[in-house]
Model the fold of this input.
Amino acid sequence: MARYLLTRAWQSALTLLLSTIVVFVGVRALPGDPALALAGEDRSPEALEAIRRHYGLDQPLPVQFAQYVERLVQGDFGVSIRTGTPVSSMLTTALPVTVELSVLAILIAAALGVGAGVLAAVRRGRPAEWLANGLALIGLSVPHFWLGLLAILYLSVATGLFPASGFVPFLEDPVDNLHHIVLPAVILGTGLAAIIMRQTRSAMLDSLSSDYVRTAKAKGLRPRAVITRHALRNSLIVVVTVVGLQLGGLISGAVVTEQIFGLPGFGKMTIDAVFQRDYPVIQAVVLLTATAYIVINFFVDLLYSVIDPRIRVTGDPA
Amino acid sequence: MTVLTVPIAETASASITRRTRVLRRLRRNPLAVVSFVVLALAAGIALLSPWLAPYSVDQTDFARVFVPPGSPGHVLGTDDLGRDVLSRIMLGARASLQVGLLAVATSLVLGVPLGLAAGYFRAWDAVISRFTDLLLAFPFLIMAVGLAAIRGASLGNAAVAIGIAQIPGVIRVVRSDTLRLKSLDFVAAAVVDGASDLWVLTRHILPNATSVILVQATVAIPAAILGEAVLSFLGLGIQPPAPSLGTMLATAQQFAARAPWAAVLPGVVIMGLALAFNVFGDALRDALDPKGDRR
Done:
């Protein structure tokens, strides 16, 4: 167990270092002089010289990289070219929105996906399975931003049940906050729900035909007890696995969903930055996404070994 | 060599009977047939769309903007600039399929050799695994954001960003199939016979891994089509005035109050394309599954 953790920690640290190098090199691949990009409006030679000195652009590349990492560790992601605000303070206002949206989407997806997956496996060959399978296929194939667009048009605008856009912080008004975020979270969760459903169904079919379930049935356990006891344990692994693997898709999805529903989160910040060529913000966004992916997947693997004892023993994430 | 050609010849004939069995299973599955017909039709329309489209995609008519569907001359109506929606959907679907194929080609060209190497050479496995981890850390949208910042937004860059993001999936399936095939007798026989690593990989392992690669490609294409739609919708993909289903939806969002129908059709086409690929991919996987009709 300890060895497995150490290996995983070392691998994650290495990946983190590599992605920092990629972002660092990527920024230097930007067209034009980085000092010009960082300068924004004020392009006088003195201003450019000051920027070169501040960011160490006159130093050799390895030195620049070391300074870059040093600033990152101190939480200094630079300053937005457009607004002049530090990127770190932009992140502290934007991130909670995205985290709330994503966590809510995962919860909705887990509830829908596990429920439909178990139903499809238990009701094998019946209309319920066909319906669940069909919905899952549609969930995989539908463009979610389009679903969001239709939801705004036909649910928010037409009926007024949900606000079409905007956001209220949770601490300000929890009810209004949920009212604003529930529709985007459902939309974001549908794709994930489809994947969880298919995996749950497959895992359930495997375990329903396994020896231990046959034993449980043979010793007279009620079918409901067999299903809930074994299904729940397995679904937990499925949900954790899918969330770990699909985290990239979830982040991409959150960006689009925020854009459609006008949520002032990480995604909106990203898209705005691209169109305003706000390079320090783009750089921070890319690096932060990579870091989040690596760190969360490390914890997913830890959680995994807690849920599934086989991994603890063999040290091999199946 | 003469002795050892026998097992190789046997694999060849076995693969022919396997192919007929797979095709028979596909023909007997109505969902497979329907999705295949839909895809063939879509491919045909996409290929011929420059000639089939009733109007030029750029032909504006400011006297007839937002004509609703079913109007004479414009079966699916017109958009904010009076351009024919049917023509733009046909060429938009063509662009979707282009990006889908281009992205998947990118991921296969880079992912298949890496997957083969990771599965075949132990020493390379760790290095390629770290490379995979690195790629996974950059979701396709973030990859596209970076590429758009460096090289500008375009159809090609969108396809490359999606394709790069799909490489880890290709490496994973090719690597595990290579590991499986490597342990089989006919590969061991070829190695004993003195075949070079390159020969074994290209003549024995790659041909036998084609079915998993094929399945991976059929599930990756719809994902790439959805990815293109997202990127174009956000302005990071195909640039106006070039027709794209994603940018059509972005325009529809701006004018949703005036022409709500414009937000429906392009989405239905994207979903239809992706659904046909996903259904066919499922059917193909079932047909290729040696365990048969278990599920």
Observations:
- The interface with chain A takes residues 129-130, 133-134, 136-142, 145-146, 148-150, 165, 222, 226, 229-230, 233-236, 249, 252-253, 256-257, 260, 263-264, 266-267, 270-271, 274-275, 277-279, 282, 295 of chain B (CB under 8 Å).
- DSSP finds ten helices and no strands in chain B.
